[in-house]
Design brief:
- This protein is of the alpha/beta class.
- It has one domain: Divalent-metal-dependent TIM barrel enzymes (TIM Barrel), CATH 3.20.20.
- The chain contains nine helices and eight strands.
- Strands 1-2-3-4-5-6-7-8 form an eight-stranded parallel β-barrel.
- Helix 2 packs parallel to helix 3, helix 3 runs parallel beside helix 4 and helix 4 packs across helix 5.
- The longest helix is centred in the middle third of the chain and has 16 residues.
- It is globular, with a radius of gyration of 17 Å.
- Pfam families: AP_endonuc_2 (PF01261).
- This is TIM barrel protein.
- It comes from Azospirillum lipoferum.
Length: about 260
């Protein structure tokens, strides 16, 4: 398996230390963020590129452009700025998340956004990683709808899916699209008291034997179907961020996943 680390795993670590820590686990692929922590507005792309080169890691994505499916206001300008940053820092892709505020977005508007975003990505040699969010308030919950919109936009050469094990479970989705998937985000929920419909990012911990999201069956199915891309740890829970050594905890989760498979 190709494990990767999302900076949300250890947001308190400065970027250089985060990159170096990934290498201690044998991971050579990382994701940086423009929120938690906000690397994009605090470091120049040249600094990020230099740090990645020094550590010997590949930046697989910047996470994320939001809300990508509402192509109005300042979004087009923000999309170009973020894509410019991604190209300059050496990132391979942009994660693109839909509106998640309880307001619907029409399928045609989703297609419009993907169509408009396509040349921005292609001109910079980037992949767009479309990540459906399984929350009940999300405007794009399923990978099936994302694939249909990508096809309608003629974007199969530009876009891939993010299969997020948390969001896959929340959406009640049963379909897998391994050949359309460019990245897998993995996290678990161990809290036995929270109903699935009430699960939120703060519930997302590292995957272990108490996981309720069926991470292992999901991963097993993706691998069996031929997915050979990275599996990136993306735990949002404060209890993970507050660990004395979240990187070591991620290593233990890697060991668990390998043994469970």
């Amino acid at each position: 398996m190709r494990f990767a680390l999302n900076h949300i795993l250890a947001p308190k670590l400065p970027l250089e230390q985060f990159f170096a820590a990934a290498r201690t686990l044998g991971a050579t692929e990382v994701e940086i963020r423009n929120d938690l922590p906000d690397v994009v507005t605090t470091l120049s792309p040249a600094e990020v590129r230099a740090a990645a080169g020094q550590a010997g890691v590949t930046i697989i994505s910047i996470n994320a452009l939001y809300p990508f499916n509402v192509w109005s206001g300042d979004l087009p300008a923000r999309a170009e700025t973020l894509a410019d940053y991604a190209r300059a820092c050496g990132a391979r892709a942009l994660v693109m998340c839909p509106l998640n505020e309880g307001k619907p977005v029409a399928f045609d508007d989703l297609v419009t956004a993907l169509t408009a975003m396509r040349p921005i990505l292609r001109d910079r040699g980037l992949t767009g990683l479309v990540e459906p969010l399984g929350f009940p308030v999300s405007s794009l919950r399923t990978k099936r709808e994302a694939v249909a919109a990508i096809e309608a936009a003629g974007g199969a050469d530009t876009y891939k899916l993010v299969h997020d094990t948390f969001h896959h479970h929340l959406a009640g989705e049963t379909e897998f699209f391994p050949d359309r998937t460019g990245l897998v985000h993995i996290s678990g929920v161990a809290d036995a008291g929270v109903p699935v419909a009430d699960m939120l990012d703060p519930h997302r911990v590292l995957v272990d034997a108490a996981d309720r999201l069926e991470n292992i069956p999901q991963i097993r199915r993706l691998l069996a179907a031929g997915y050979d891309g990275p599996f990136s740890f993306e735990p949002f829970a404060a209890e993970v961020h507050g660990l004395p050594d979240p990187i070591a905890a991620a290593g233990q989760s890697m060991d668990y996943v390998r043994s469970a498979l």
